[in-house]
Specification:
With 120 residues, this protein is of the alpha/beta class. Helices cover 52% and strands 13% of the residues. It holds the Pfam family PIN_2.
């Protein structure tokens, strides 16, 4: 099964609307990974995501839990050895995406993202 690291924007997209993105995450066609802190990011932006999704709080929380069940969350110690390289690569692009790149390098897989710099 193909492994992919999910960028935050993919999970945000899956939360905001019913879409192919959400369907793919829930399908188990891929082994999906993300840094474990990603759900802290979601919590930080929860009100905005909730408003954009037009879901009530209960449905939103249920969807979030469902998505979490399909994503392997890995702690920083699983990719920390690749962080310096990832930061060097993304320093002048978007250094905040370094954990996603480091995790992808540690797992030897691709990143699923809507960010243009990951498509290069």
């Amino acid at each position: 099964m193909m492994k992919l690291v999910l960028d935050s924007n993919i999970i945000f997209s899956a939360l905001i609307k019913k879409s192919k993105t959400r369907d793919i995450i829930l399908s188990d066609l891929f082994e999906l990974y993300a840094p474990e802190y990603i759900f802290n990011e979601i919590t930080k932006h929860k009100e905005l995501l909730l408003n954009k999704s037009k879901l009530d709080r209960g449905d939103f929380d249920a969807l979030l839990l469902l998505l979490q069940k399909h994503i392997h969350l890995l702690s920083k110690d699983k990719y920390n050895e690749k962080m310096a390289i990832a930061e060097d690569i993304l320093r002048n692009i978007d250094i905040t995406d370094s954990p996603f790149l480091a995790l992808a390098m540690a797992l030897s897989c691709s990143i699923w993202s809507n960010d243009g710099h990951f498509k290069q």
